[in-house]
Structure formats: structure tokens, C-alpha cells
Design a protein that fits this description.
The protein has helices at residues 13-21, 23-30, 67-81, 98-104, 122-127, 144-155, 165-170, 209-213, 216-234, 263-279, 307-318, 340-348, 399-410, 425-444, and strands spanning 4-10, 34-40, 53-54, 64-65, 85-89, 109-114, 131-133, 175-176, 188-189, 250-255, 283-287, 303-304, 323-327, 358-363. It is an alpha/beta fold and 455 residues long. The chain folds into three domains: 4-155, SPOUT methyltransferase, trefoil knot domain (Alpha/beta knot, 3-Layer(aba) Sandwich); 178-238, Trp Operon Repressor, Chain A, CATH 1.10.1270.20; 250-449, Alpha/beta knot (3-Layer(aba) Sandwich), CATH 3.40.1280. Strand 5 (85-89), helix 4 and strand 6 form a beta-alpha-beta unit. Helix 10 runs parallel beside helix 14. The protein is elongated, with a radius of gyration of 29 Å. 38% of the residues are buried. The structure holds 6-chloroguanine. 6-chloroguanine (6GU) is lined by residues 89-91, 134-136, 138-140, 142-143, 146. Homodimer.
Length: 455
Amino acid sequence: MSGQTFEVFTLFPEAVAGFLRGGLVGKAVARELVSVHCTDYREFATDRYRTVDDAPYGGSPGMVMKIEPVVAALEHVTRERGPMHRILLTPAGPRFDQRVAERLATVPRIGLLCGRYEGIDDRVREHFVDECLSIGDFVLNGGEVAALAIIEAVARLREGVLGNPESAARDSFSLQDMSSETCPEDHGAWLEHPHFTRPPDFRGLGVPDVLLAGAHAEVARWRREQAWRRTWALRPDLRPQRSLPAGAPVYLVAQFGQGEKDMSERSALLAALAAAASAGGAELRVVAPGRASDLGDVPRAAQFRSLKDLARELRRRHGAAPRLVALGPADGLPLARGAAPLLDLLAASGTGDLSAPLVLVLACAGTGDLARPVTNAPGAASAPSSTGLRGLEAAFSPVILQASKLAAGLAETTPMNDSSGPQPVEAAARLVADALAELKTCRSTRPSELRHEQQ
Ligand code: 6GU
């Protein structure tokens, strides 16, 4: 890859050039990986006073940069050093971000036009540039700081500019695979995990043990989880939009224990879940050991005596091991809101195959709430053996065990929490309905994933 050139157009060429002499960009310039030219608009002003601004037509406070010196500067540089991709820096442009930096890193010659005053005569934007960019929702006195930010962000992505090319790939906002190579279409931007270095103790402030122990796989898992937590807590807007493949079957399972259960409560719950399932494109199944008579309108074919029986049936029907996810405020594991954390969990748990049947299990052994958890988290052993998850590894994909472990670890992350304790049936049904509806939208709006559809 040969060098990349930035042509900066500005009224303050010295300030811009001065900054770029320092740091990694300065080194990259010295090594001819990157070159930067600064061109002063003022040199292209033609009157005696070298005027580059004028009062706005229509009247308003402030001055506007004149079109002639700007276009003269552009044309001069184009003649001297060749054409370039022209970018106008303006707070009214689309937002510059890491995706844009990655795109610009592939462009050999980039022109950055800095405005001052109230901006540049708009005919420049309309007829003389290829795109506009802003670096954020705030107003600077001119585009110079924005140009510097863009040069630094773009240049560091060029081969050889950073000492260690891997660090660019691991930065916050870069495309990272949270599912560790198992789910290639599932890239997204995540905030980077935190870093620590010596000393291991500073005024009593320690470093996470897992990093000191240095077991590679454990460190990698911890970092993924940290990136996941941080992104959810600080910038949930950044996380990738995951989706289930269009044809992926989803089952909603109401699981009743052997304990006494108010009949009207039970049928109200079943009705609510049936509505949630059908609205969300899922099929309802019921697991209830030996109480078929209580299950009202639920067809026999949808009733199972145990999760194991259900798993066997689903494997027969779909030819793939179903993945089981327990939903419920279990052992400090709160209800996840919406489909997003669920999908993250599945992806992060290491399954590449999001098209396997997904089984969402609601535990409803109590009366009127979901206090009775179904979970693989420690403590799950207390669930009745016929309906709990023990011994189910053979029937369900082992992925689930990992997913649940991860869920337990991630449960504190604010945005996915509902810490209000056991949910009344209606609230739980509503949460499930929301999650299913979201899953359904994901599935129907992502045609690129149709190839995963089951045959
Ligand atoms: Cl590109 N220019 C100016 N003047 N202000 C900004 C900006 C650019 N991006 C954010 N604020």
C-alpha cells in the first residue's frame, strides 16, 4: 500500500502543519506513509487586501467565506498534485465515525476543506465537493480541529502507521467479532474492554485477578464480557443489530411445576402467553408433569411432560438441537428486556448457528408470579428434577449452559435489567411479547440473512 495524501485547505496552515509534525502522524509523515499539504485560501485571494470573506446576502451577523479563493485553491492543488476526494468540514454534515474512517483509509488522496466565519458560500458544497462531514453535535470556530481529528483517525488505520496493527482492530468502535469467529455476519461496534498495567496494587487499588492469572481463554472471555457490559451500560446504540435468521423457529414454553396452581391464574397466564406467542411469531408449548387436565385449550400435541420430551420432539422436527434459554427473575438473574440481550447472549455464548430452534422457557410453578426459576445458574439444582435443567445437556445443545452462565455474569448490566423482583404474570407476558415481537421484526427485516433459512 503506497502513501496516503491529505490536502488541507485552511486560513491557518501553520497551526494545522504544526500539530501534524508531532506524534504518530508526524512519524508516519517522516516515514512517507502519509503526506499532508496545507494550502492557504488567502494566497488565492486576488484583491489588494487578500480578502477571503464577505457579508452574507440577505443580511445577518457574521461573514461568509467567498467562493473564488476556495475554488481557486482547489483548482490549483488539483493541477499541481492531482485530483482528490473533496470533503467539506461543516457541523451540518453527516457524522464522522469509525466506519467513515475505515472507508477513507482506502482513499489515496483526500482534500479537507476547513471553513471559518459563518461558513463557506454554499455553492462550494453544492458543486465543488464530494461529501460533507461533521465530527459531532457542537460548533467549532472552524474546520481545522475537525480536519486534524479526521487525519489522525484515518492515518492510524493505514498499514505501518501503528506499531502494532492489531491494536487498531481491537479499538473501541472497530468492528469486532464478539462471538469469537463463530458467527461471521454478526460484527458490530463495541466499546473496548478496560486495560491495566503494573503495579498490581496502587494505594490498595487492585487489578482483576483473571488478568494476573493470565489464562488466555479466560482473559479473552473476560474481555468480551467487559466490552459487552460497557457497551450496554454506556453506548447501547453502538451494539450491532443482531437478528435471528428469517426461518429460525422460536418456541415459547410455559413450564408448570407440580405444586398447587390456581386454575384460573393458570388459564389466564396461558391465554396471555398464547397471545404473546402468536403476536411474536412463536409457537406455544406447555410443560406440565401429569396435569394435562388443567391445561384448558392447549392442544395435546403442544403439551409435554418434561423439557426433555419437548427437546426430543423439537430435534426430530427440525433436525437440529434446540437451544434453551430460561426467562425469569431467577437467583438474582433478572428478566432481560427485549430481544437484544437475548440475541447477544446467544451469539456471545459461542453458537454460530442462530437458525437452530430457540426455546424460551418461562418458569411458572408458583401462583401468579415467576418466582420459581428455571436456570442453569448455581442453585438450579433445587428445581424439581423432572422439570429442571439437570441432565438436559444431552437433549438440548450444550450452548445453553454457556449462555446461562454468561447471563448470570451479565445480569447486573443496567439496560437489560428489571430488578423489580418477581413479575406479575401480565408483566412477564408483556416482556415476553415485546421480546418476541422484536425477534420477529429482526427476522422479517433482514433479507440478507435469508440464506440461513431452514430448508
Ligand atoms: Cl467539521 N466544523 C465546525 N466548524 N464545527 C464542527 C464540526 C466541523 N464538526 C463539529 N463541529
